[in-house]
Amino acid sequence: MFTTKRAVSWAFYDLANTIYSAAVVTVFLPLYVNSLTHLNVLMGAAATVAMILAGLFSPALGAVTDATGRTKRYLIIATIICCLAVFFIALPLPLAGILTFFVVAHFFYHLSLVYYNSLLPVVAPPERQGWVSGLGVGLGYAGVLVALPIGYWVEKNFGTRFVFPAVALSFLAGTIPLALFVPERAVEHPQKFQWRLVGLELKEVFQTLRSLPRHPNIFFFLVGNFFVMEAVNAVILWLSVFIKFSFKLTQGQLILVLVAANLSACVFGFVIGFFTDRIGALKATIASALALFGALLFLMFSHNPFLALGALLIFGSLGLAGTWVAGRRVLIELSPPEKLGEFFGLYGMTSKLACFSMALFALLADRFGFRMAILELLAVLAIGLVFLTKVPGTFVPR
Predict the structure, then answer these.
(1) Considering the entire predicted model, what is its pTM?
(2) Is residue 284 in some structural domain?
(3) What's the CATH code of the domain at 118?
(4) Which residues contact 43 (CB under 8 A, 6 or more apart)?
């Protein structure tokens, strides 16, 4: 049964986890590590390791929810572990310790997204899932509008290290509505959790992977999503560093630009959610990837900060918001209900193993500069678009 309270409580978790993503991954930790090492590749390597681990394990751990019916419980556990690791980044640690806690936090953050996405059918019927997904993305970007100014104030008054406990506490607080008001995802014949289930589900995941070529709709979508997310993940990690050093912004100016970008993405999240239910999730996914492609072109070739940042606020925000809103709706449309957790695990795997561009972009940026490194992101986006247009039901004629 659909209720507004249930939908908003689910969507509020998007606000909470985006606080982590924006404050830790996009802004403060990459700049903090850069200030310690004057290199980008170390942060890129740490993020890549975390996402490879998440990509390898999330399908099986997601599939376990299909057997146990404990999706919300696992979501809360993963969130608590992520927040503890973020909190510990504030300790006076060597660089290796900082990056280790980041790897732990980032692994459990991405695992939590698998469980979170699997709860969408609990809170909304099919005809409203695009809108509710857009509500989540919109609230997520709205949360960044609060998180970044608070993080900037904490950094200015207490130092960068103390931003991380504030983020951890905010993430935990934002989880409370989901914990209280969103029910568990019901499954037939739920089993008690046992570690052997992980092994059994991992075996079934490999069997599903081998069978994917016989299901071209899901196969082409997952491959296309992999390449699109290569660009999306790299943009999320390196956007603040790119903007700050390419356009010579102060920390305060950078925060203002990112707040404006997230405000724009908040609006586009609602808009794309509305249109996803009307024009179709596949069309909305392709349009979002094209918008991101256009934004990267502007950032690469334009040396006028107003034009480049204007393209970021319009096309970049639309692209980043739209890929999340429409993508999970596509997967729900393509997946059998009894395998939703497993297929969201595979969707999570393509999103998380799409991490090589984070390190490659950093290597190219250190060697040739940020603008030349964008070429690599344009290439993987183009490949992703080719595969997405091969999914049955897209608007591209064949």
Answers:
(1) 0.73
(2) yes
(3) 1.20.1250.20
(4) 29, 30, 33, 34, 99, 237, 362
Neighbouring C-beta atoms of residue 160, cutoff 10 Å:
18
Evaluate whether residue 397 is within a structural domain. Answer: no
- Token pair for 290: 């094209």
pLDDT tens digit string along 180-206? 999 988 766 666 666 566 666 667 667
In a domain, 93, yes or no: yes
The C-alpha atoms of residue 12 and residue 10 are separated, in whole angstroms, by: 5
Tell me which residue range forms the domain holding 69. 4-183+195-388
What tokens were used for 221?
């979508």
Helix (H) or strand (E) holding 75: helix 71-88
Q: d(Cα 129, Cα 328) in Å, to the nearest integer?
A: 9
Query: What is the 8-class DSSP label of residue 189?
Result: S
User: Residue 126: which of 331, 286, 313, 307 has the closest Cα?
Assistant: 331
Amino acid type, 6: R
Can you give the C-alpha Rg of the chain in angstroms? 20
Here the tokens at position 253 are 């100016």
Which spans in 119-215 are helix H? 120-123, 129-158, 163-181, 195-211
Cβ proximity of 268 and 318 under 8 Å: yes
Total count of domains within the chain: 1
